[in-house]
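We both want to read discrete structure tokens more fluently, so let's practise on a single case. Would you supply a protein for us yourself, any chain you care to pick? Would you write everything just below, so we can both look at the same thing?
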Amino acid sequence: MCALIEVQDLTKAYGPVRAIDELCFCVQEGSLFAFLGPNGAGKSTTIEILCTFLKPDAGEALIAGHRLGRENARIRQSIGAVFQEGLLDPLLTVEENLLCRGALYGQGGKPLRQACLRALEEMHLADLRKRRYGNLSGGQRRRADIARALIHAPKVLFLDEPTTGLDPQTRRAVWEILLSLRQNTGMTLFLTTHYLEEAEQADNVIILDAGAIAASGSPEALRRQYAGDHLTLSCTNPRAASAFLREKDFSFRATGTSLRVNLSRTLDALPLLQAMKGLYESFGVASGTLEDAFLAITGKELRE
């Protein structure tokens, strides 16, 4: 795969504070790329720069072969963006909204109507095109927001927390459509999200912290490097169990009567369970998650 986005030493400061500091990364064409970080890490600033809304203080970027700052109009023709807040008019129908937005790209007449219908079909909204945007459900509005960003068939779709506020079932439905769109069109998806299960599907992940890249790699590689397996114990005597683990130099976290013990290997649980017999009622062994890796890398929960 070729790099669709290339970022070199991208920097943006607000007074003495550097929102992003010499960022360097590539996004491969056709990939699902997850750009993660706690609140204030610099994610939105980066996206605003790549979408040509904000001018960087230093650094360069190529997007779909077009140089940021010199070919911004061509970049805008190559990208679509979906933000947390919807941009469509609640009093217009879905179709009217898309026709108005498509006209901003210089389209018109039959080609524009066909482009709008294609975008609606891709988001499974063709049957609702005559309904007012304000009368749609939350999930339907979100799909209409995404359809708005697809009218001009962009090469990359920026998704800034696209499922925030949606219930789990609706989030899943939106993602099924997005992944199908990527598979059918080869479109690149650039994602920020507070739901790490969405990032688990990414080809590559960057974790940003305080404006700098703290870690990068596939979800599997990040889990392997930063999130080991763990043993969870439901204890009959949590005080005695904690004392035993401290004496044996195990790293663990206590929550009520539950202890979560970090393991180097899954097999390490067997001798530990034998040695602690009588101190617990039940146990479970689980592999590390991307959330565990994120916490280990940044020291923060994703929403902090």
Observations:
- The first strand starts at residue 3 and ends at 14.
- The chain has a mean pLDDT of 93.
- The chain is about 35% helix and 30% strand.
